[in-house]
Design goal:
The protein is α/β, with parallel strands linked by helices. The protein has helices at 15-23, 31-41, 56-66, 85-99, 115-124, 133-141, 158-161, 167-176, 192-198, 234-241, 257-269, 283-295, 328-335, 356-365, 399-414, 493-496, 511-516, 523-526, and strands at 46-49, 78-81, 106-109, 128-131, 152-156, 182-187, 206-210, 222-228, 249-253, 274-277, 300-303, 316-321, 345-351, 458-462. It binds one DNA strand of 7 nucleotides through residues 83-85, 110-112, 132-138, 160, 165-166, 169, 255-257, 278-279, 304-306, 308, 326, 330. It holds the Pfam family DEAD.
Length: 540
DNA sequence: AAAAAAG
């Protein structure tokens, strides 16, 4: 366990990509990456599942970039479809960074923004496209986006993309790309029914699961708590919690857009540097809020589930569920915004009377037993320290009692004025979004990650389905949001994956099973076939 | 029922 995970270079990744990753402080692979690279680079279809914040983006991004023909003819060669605009921007930036030394042109295609820039970029030529369903279909129908040469397709947050709301659009997109293509699905959560559905359009896919963890994929690194906020003033409760020592960036999730805005406004009024992000805001405001949060200008982000998946921001130390999430998948993704890449995090779910049933369902499904918190990381900040809970009791008392008792008590006396400030943030900040990125852009600092998780176990299963391979072309890049690419991670061997990674255990992920995987000879045939330009995707 | 996603 102390050994370090294999490097990207050891998988035969192109030097230009290795160099770009290195510049971002990334050298070694995470478990999902080590497990995915061999198969993905060979052109196999696959379903990749790993816990949140464990590198899934590069897990499919590197193989995808690897098979882009450079220079291409300007026709998109690979496509990544994501559920939200902000995630689209983020993934595009990550891939843009990883492919910069190859001269790969990357473009983010999403709604809420003018058509022209995107159309113009396509006109000039694009190799890699990352997009949200609506705008992708829109531009494709207008003939501005040509999907006829897509040789690699990825559905990020796959279970969400194949859910009722998105399925129709995804099916249409699938009908527009060549049958002969490589298709990969990634997500931290992958319900059985979704996998079954996926097999209908995947070609003998291998199911790769780093750190097996059926129910969800929750990091042991994140301390989870449930707080029975029955009939309590949740905003007041949170206002206090936000004053916790050592708190870094904090994300607060609500179930509705209205509530998200309201909570953000209330917190701003109380003097917190908070911003809101939800679908009722203009795209500019959404991106501005996220940038402000990323840069630290605002350290409290109140969001709807638009920000529950994929958003990768360093330094998010706390996630507070102002309202109980809809289901267990949403719960897993929401709290997955913290405790990323080897860091620790704290997740607190406030449960009101009318949410008890839903919470029980989530709790049971994920086998959570938060009434008796698993463990407390002395090194991680604790919201509860400001809720009147004795330090040493955090992990033992029945949450419902201790918290309520202590809280209500103080609540009445202290409640009066609104205090402000909390640790770092300064006074009142702009409400929704303020400017943004002035402060630190942490992107740079290449931190290096040490371990990855090659070693973790992986459950590989094969499945099958029908499907293709593909071919493609190339294009420019895009901009927006956060600069940073991958993130750093520190920590040495064993814990890289986290103490919990234990799950990994023995399975030799990488090769062993994956290789030929007992099942079928998946990889062989599928590779792309004859396209005029075909290049060896897997060549190297 | 809610959110997101084209406008």
């Amino acid at each position: 366990m102390t050994e370090e995970s294999p490097t990207f270079a050891s998988f035969g990744v192109k030097p230009e990509i290795v160099k770009a990753l290195g510049e971002a402080g990334i050298e070694r692979t995470f478990a999902i990456q080590a497990l995915t690279l061999p198969l993905a680079m060979a052109g196999d279809d696959l379903i990749g599942q790993a816990r949140t914040g464990m590198g899934k983006t590069l897990g499919f991004g590197v193989p995808l970039l690897h098979r882009v023909e450079v220079p291409g003819d300007g026709t998109p060669q690979v496509l990544v479809v994501v559920p939200t605009r902000e995630l689209c921007i983020q993934v595009a930036n990550d891939l843009k960074g990883a492919g910069k030394h190859l001269g790969i042109r990357t473009l983010a295609i999403y709604g809420g923004r003018p058509y022209e820039p995107q159309i113009e970029a396509l006109r000039k030529g694009v190799d890699v496209v990352i997009g949200t369903p609506g705008r992708l279909l829109d531009l494709a129908e207008q003939q501005h986006l040509v999907l006829g040469k897509i040789r690699g397709l990825v559905l990020d947050e796959a279970d969400e993309m194949l859910d009722l709301g998105f399925l129709p659009d995804i099916e249409r997109i699938l009908r527009m790309v060549p049958d002969e293509r490589q298709t990969m699905l990634f997500s931290a959560t992958m319900p059985g029914p979704i996998i079954t559905l996926a097999r209908t359009f995947l070609n003998q896919p291998t199911h790769i699961r780093a750190e097996e963890n059926d129910a969800g994929a929750i990091h042991e690194r994140t301390s989870q708590f449930v707080y029975r906020a029955h009939s309590m003033d949740k905003t007041e409760l949170i206002a206090r919690a936000l004053q916790a020592e050592g708190r870094g960036l904090t994300m607060i999730f609500s179930r509705t857009k209205r509530t998200a805005q309201k909570v953000a406004d209330d917190l701003v009024e109380r003097g917190f540097a908070a911003a809101a992000v939800h679908g009722d805001l203009g795209q500019g405001a959404r991106e501005q809020a996220l940038r402000a949060f990323r840069s630290g200008k605002v350290d409290v982000l109140v969001a709807t589930d638009v920000a529950a998946r994929g958003i990768d921001i360093d330094d998010v130390t706390h996630v507070i569920n102002y309202q109980c999430p809809e289901d267990e998948k949403t719960y897993v993704h929401r709290i997955g915004r913290t405790g990323r890449a080897g860091r620790t995090g704290v997740a607190v779910t406030l449960v009101d009377w009318d949410e008890e049933a839903r919470w029980k369902l989530i709790s049971d499904t994920l086998s959570l037993d938060l009434a008796e918190p698993v463990e407390t990381y002395s090194s991680s900040p604790h919201l509860f320290s400001d809720l009147g809970i004795p330090e040493g009791t955090k992990g033992r008392l029945p949450l419902s009692k201790r918290t309520r008792a202590g809280l209500s008590a103080e609540k009445e006396e202290d409640l009066g004025g609104k205090r402000r400030g909390r640790r770092g943030s300064s006074g009142p900040a702009s409400p929704s979004a303020s400017e943004d990125e002035a402060p630190r852009k942490r992107n740079r600092a290449p931190r290096k990650r040490t371990r990855g998780g090659a070693r973790s176990a992986a459950a590989i299963e094969a499945a099958d389905a029908a499907a293709p391979a593909s071919s493609g072309s190339s294009g420019p890049d895009q901009q927006e949001d956060r600069p940073r690419t991958p993130r750093r991670r520190t920590r040495s061997g064993a814990d890289a994956t986290g103490p919990a990674t234990s799950t990994g255990n023995a399975t030799p992920a990488t090769t062993s099973d994956s290789g030929e995987t007992g099942d079928r000879p998946a990889r062989r045939r599928r590779r792309r076939r004859p396209s005029a330009s075909d290049t060896p995707a897997s060549a190297d």
